[in-house]
Amino acid sequence: MKKTIIKLTILLGLTINNNLQSQTISFDTFTLSTNSYYKDTTGADFSSNGLTFRYNWNSSWGGYWESGSAYTNVADTVNGTYTNLYGCIPGSAFAGNNYATIQSGAIIAMSNTTTAVSGFYLTNTTYAWKEIKNGGFGRKFGDTTGTGSGTSIAQGQYPDWFKVLVKGYRGGNLLSDSIEFYLADYRPAGVIDDYVVKNWQFVNCISLGQVDSLTFEMKSSDNNAFGMKTPAFFSIDHLTIQSTVGIKELNNISNIYIYPNPTKQTLFLNYESKNPHELNIHITDISGKEIQNYTSLSTIGNNQIKLETENYEAGIYFIELNDGTISKTIKFIKL
User: Fold this and answer.
1) What is the CATH number of domain 253-334?
2) 42 pLDDT exceeds 90?
3) Distances (CA, A) of 32 to 38, 74, 99, 101
4) CATH classification of 6-11+21-243, choosing from 2.60.120.1350, 3.40.50.460, 2.120.10.30, 2.40.50.140?
5) Is the model more confident about 65 or about 153?
């Protein structure tokens, strides 16, 4: 698998309080028999820890799960057809017994409108993974003989890809920031960097900030006149949220910005300080692993800190600025 499988839009920051308590939704609060899934022919939504997962059932043609989310523990990693909509390709939850499978367009609503989503784990469903790897209704990714919608590239391959966009709403308005995660990526020339996600991967959602609902949009390079041919499903587990009540801005510094973003080697952090003080700086990757940390002595007025990122792997990183009690997180991309 290539080093970078997550790409996000560029946005300066979410202000957070380190003392806030987080809560994780694992779907194990729901009772299921072995190899089964949530099914409600009345189309009732289901809820857990203040989150409501929208669910729709269509009674036409014998009845089917039309849209939304469904919690499940299906362990089928063999059946890659539409008769296995709920199973994930790892064959089990990230941890525990249950996970959830989500369709494109699904909505998760927050009962507390002062909620931030820290992140969640996701992976491909068995249905989508098998279609991408072997073909079926859709084209086998990387196929050199099919009639793909993409433009051919080196070695005759189509630059195939399959991704999910995580979007947030606040006050009923769609936020400008979104999080983009590639569940499969065959775009680079050659085959060495091609991949289809087969295990659980963490998606950091902290840059969305306070939201009252999440929605998911799936896109693929394989389409026809009627829409996407790749199965529009993925699975999630261990969704972590936190309350944003009491969030405050840093008191001592203002006018924070970084450039260039994205960066290839050197990143400059600029800010204004009201008084001399120590500023703690922590740099973490998309999984939360700390890459670097140090303390800077700020002076009154304009300050600039030079950050060398030459040895960082390509991907998404976060700079956390902390004055001891309050912190601010800024996202940047290393090319």
Assistant:
1) 2.60.40.2550
2) yes
3) 8, 10, 11, 14
4) 2.60.120.1350
5) 65
